[in-house]
Amino acid sequence: MKNGFLLNTCFLSCFLFLLINYSCASKKHITSTYDDYHLVWSDEFNTDGIPNKDNWDYELGFVRNQEEQWYQKENAICKDGYLIIHAKKETKKNPNFTSKSEINWKKNRDSIKITSSCLITKDKHSWQYGRFEMRAKIPTSNGIWPAFWTLGTQGNWPANGEIDIMEYYKGKILANIAWESDKKWTPIWDSETVDLKEFETPKWHEQFHIWRMDWDENSIKLFVDNQLLNEVDLKTTFNGTNRKNPFHQPHYLLLNLAVGGINGGEVTQESLPTEFVIDYVRVYQ
User: Which residues form the GH16 domain (predicted)?
Assistant: First the structure.
């Protein structure tokens, strides 16, 4: 009887040890640390429901690049520790429609056929320099255009500066920054692309990956899974129009799932619905 009790106690202890360790291993790491950085802001998306309104606002409607999607809040939801941005077919009237003859592409579409979301930290959070990190699984079907990027708080695009920490379309990962040339509204791009076929991991596009930017007063470095994709010397990034450097000012974050448009490519029947799944977004300084 005594031996049986000890055996049962030992079994129970081992079971609890395994259960506790499994639970800890399955939890999301809240505070990844780096030797020279400390965490200054993050969203772990651990609360089910709408994204944290203290962190995120939204772009609404048809916004840029002649993209097919209509941005709305409803397509972004937090569930099971992830932010999920859905792009889907949804038909309704364009409330901004004026006339088919209008040159303005945002107003001459009489209907909305695809919806998605773009979340932004503008007027809520912005940072000058640091390590910006996202862990996410991106959709890669035809015509789909997910992105994790920043814009400067001062000035109009591209004079305010754009940093594409993660951008994908047409089978390629892009790591870009842009600023204004000598001609107003015309960007200079420093862009690097990697074909998905170059990643040797099987089914790379079906897995989570970590995108990172290291940004200081001297340079911007863009990575995926610690692989350096692009490095830009900030001595070269002064706007031609006003001689300001847009990468010496605070930037805010954008997370969006675009469809089609000037870069996204043709959307096929199989492309939708799809989703952009984000585990966390963190900023260190």
Answer: 43-285
